[in-house]
Amino acid sequence: MAIHSTLTPEALLEAPIYSHPIPNASGNLAVYTQRKYSFRSHSEIREIRVWDMNSPRSWAVTDNPRANYPGWLGHSEQLIWLEAMDNGNTRFVVRDSRLRSAHYVVGTVPGPVKNLKVTSVAFSEDCDDDLSFAVVGQANTDGTLFNPDDNISTHTPHHPQTTLPGRGAHRPKSVIWFGGLVRPSQATEGQYTMTPMTNLMEYFKFGELESDGSFDDDSLDFFKDTWHILFVAKDPESDQSTHTASSCYLCPMMAWTGFPPPDECYHAWRFRGLGGTISSPTVNAGGTVALLCKKEDGYAADKNRIVEQEGRQVLYQLNLASWPNPPTPADLELFDGLMRFGSVMDVTPLPEKSKRVLVSCDSSDSSRRVIIQDLPAQVSGTSPPSPIRGESFGLSERQVDQIWFPGDEQRQIHAWVVKPSYFKPKQIYPLLYVIHGGPQDSWRQGWDMRCHLALFAEHGGFEYIRETLEYVDTERAVALGLGYGGYMINWIQGNGLGCRFKALIADNGTFNLLSHLSNSTQHSILHGLGGPPWLNPEAWRKWDPAQHAGNWKTPLLLIHGELNRQSPVSDTLAAFNTLKLQSAETALLIFPDEGSRIRSTENLLLWYRTVLEWLEHEQPQNKRIGMFSYGSGLASTLFSFRVKGDTSRIAEQVRLNERLESRTPVSPEFYNEMCDLREKAYQQKNYTPVGSVDTLTPGIYYLVHVDDSPSSI
């Protein structure tokens, strides 16, 4: 990794990325993954590492770039992980975490699988001879494991479909697979072997049911313990394009070999939640299920509620609209102890007899930090994986403030204010106004590789900011929007607010709202606009950026991923052509191999460089400026210079625009008189200039007399 002294895009993207550590059964070791990219070699280094939780020491157990999803085998110090193979298959690999023996392969499955989870089996919790596992994989139409390398065909059959591409019957479905790991009885040094995997959907005869989430981005949500597998699926009774209703399925696992088959007594249980989306299912030893549930079907931005079993008891509900009873100091003790490190990313309890949890946090000035938290006491220590410390780039937590400003209907809106590391309160700085996507997303105080606000601060409510933050120069403001934020950029471009910015940047934005009808899901836009366009045409026209395209004047950088299924690339192309037809300044960056989020590190570097160049495209710093100076007759000079530093202070003192506006207009006759007077005064000695000085700008030097000395000529 290259050494950087400031937070540049290269420094950000070459910083190591850590996963949340997973502790073993005794709580003395934890395993995590580490990856870092090198722009010098254009390659990524991946490692599975083990951390001794009683010391700051950690070590690598494998540097195979295809190794991932590590876990612990029972109560031992042995690790198991998945390794992708060239032919698309996946092998299960075991190795002692302290490197006392070589690794070996437990078994191989004929396709790609992910998200390995390993636990004990029922009635043998104290013995490591029999273990169980579950993974996520895709299934062919016959229920076998899908392998893309086995499905290469020069001819693709075409069939009429009743659903959009990407959700049809011909697409491999994401399902959960389970199996067993066995070794000779009481042979603690013996090697494990793997039983054949079983398709959970086929085993419980779920039919067309599909696990919720995407196999490609690891978003499939399921839980496994000794006795159960829980997963979430969209309700098959509803149209998934217009509904978000889902259910949680509890599958009792009496055996992990695929036998005996379920019967009337041994079957899966369905929990419908509260009517909306369900996520993060879990179950305790007594079989009580807890879920995160949303109430309203079709409303993806609804808030989560922690619910027990079938929604009969709400365990915890955060009232975002108002907080009638202020929290007590005891309520905030744990919260404050963690939030001072930034945003909480993951929490894992340590062994049952311990009253400690392992917490991963990050912040704008530091990458993932691991904390051992005693309950209910304070933080007991921080340890590897070592975070990227912001002070190495000049960053600190003092750069981050937050404000609340009134929004629509006087609702209070929260915003982070991230200042540069060289911030001085009495100086004025340009503004970058960044709008998040979703629209239900939010900016968090974290180390974000995709859009790091501190990086932009190093380089670089509008009305509220202009009136309240005296160090912000809103005359040099640029707005950037991602996803839904890109739509908002296109919206303000056609309205009054867009004209107040020097430049705009729209990433994967929407130009024409009707294009959303081509998406695989419409529930969000139907909820937001009160129905389809033929039932509520006024709302669709009112909030459509294309309806105001004739007002687009502000320079606009347009970015889009061609694989984005939610916002088609045609919208950005239409926005680009709209600006070109009006001779407005614009630029276009299309990623043919990316979707709504950029995954390639090289592409992400190009994204940062393009955005930063656009932010500075009207700034003279680091640019060469040509100058032409002329005098009487043929006396003239053409020269250039490069601007090395910030010119804002000079511009503030010179006030060039103000002085140009204050010039005194004169008639052509008066101008001719002044030219004649200048010609008569040329090279005169003992001469006193004539004319009025009333129109001279204060601060200008002028001659009152020319004597006869040679230096005066």
Automatic annotation (TrEMBL):
Q: What is this protein called?
A: Acylamino-acid-releasing enzyme
GO molecular-function terms, A-Z: hydroxymethylglutaryl-CoA synthase activity; serine-type peptidase activity
The processes (GO biological process) annotated in the record are: acetyl-CoA metabolic process; antibiotic biosynthetic process; ergosterol biosynthetic process; farnesyl diphosphate biosynthetic process, mevalonate pathway; monocarboxylic acid biosynthetic process; proteolysis
Organism equals Penicillium bovifimosum
**Which controlled-vocabulary keywords does the entry list?**
Transferase
Supply the source organism's classification: Eukaryota, Fungi, Dikarya, Ascomycota, Pezizomycotina
Extract the Pfam families matched here: HMG_CoA_synt_C
UniProt keyword Transferase present: yes
Q: Which InterPro entries does the record associate with it?
A: AB_hydrolase_fold (IPR029058), HMG_CoA_synt_C_dom (IPR013746), Thiolase-like (IPR016039)
Domain (Hydroxymethylglutaryl-coenzyme A synthase C-terminal) spans 610-708
